Amino acid sequence: MTFDYKGYELKFIQKKKIKDGTAHLFSLIYKFYSPITQLTYILTADYHKEDFFAVKFYAKIHRKSDFKYSLIINRGDLGNIIITCLKCVPILLKQFPAASFGFIGSRTYDKKSRRLENYIYTQRYSIYKYVTREKIGSLTFQHYEYDEISGYLLVNRNCGIDIDQKERRLAAMLAQTYSDLPNP
Asked: Which end of the chain has a smaller Cβ tally under 10 Å, C or N?
């Protein structure tokens, strides 16, 4: 499998401040359009304490759904969509040069059976993990994989402290902020 896609242009929409008492401080919201799926997608980069971004995306038509991150479009163009999401990393590094990044491969939701995929090693996580390893090297980031929660972490080597210590701090902060994730 190769992911030699160019992706699409990310267009910045807005910065949204978050005041919910968690480590999540603000969100940077972008959009992009896929001519193949004929859909607009929303990419959100949630900035947290510890100089960390959680990256997530969904099809704009699903914006009101509780399962917006879990619904499958099934119109093709996965390669360009994933590459477009990864394009936010160099964009954000220009403004936040020590930032680390992470994502969760959301659980697939089957509308017909109303079943939700298990947290462990989701379909999306499998794809994201492969593409991230292939497209983002280890010169700037140390890669951490959490198969038991379908999570992936890119710890910036320029964070100013020991990489493993930074990973532990990020993991603790994320566990407090996203308390709805299962404990590994």
From this structure: N
d(CA 48, CA 147): 22
Give the C-alpha separation, 172 to 48, whole Å: 12
Which H/E stretch holds residue 129? helix 123-135
| CA 95/CA 91 separation, integer angstroms | 7
Tell me if 113 sits within 8 A of 159, measured CB to CB. no
- The tens place of each residue's pLDDT in the chain, 184 residues long, gives 556 889 999 999 999 999 988 899 999 999 999 999 999 999 999 999 999 999 999 999 999 988 898 888 888 898 899 999 999 999 999 999 999 999 988 887 777 777 777 777 888 888 889 989 989 989 999 999 998 888 899 999 999 899 999 999 998 888 777 755 544 4
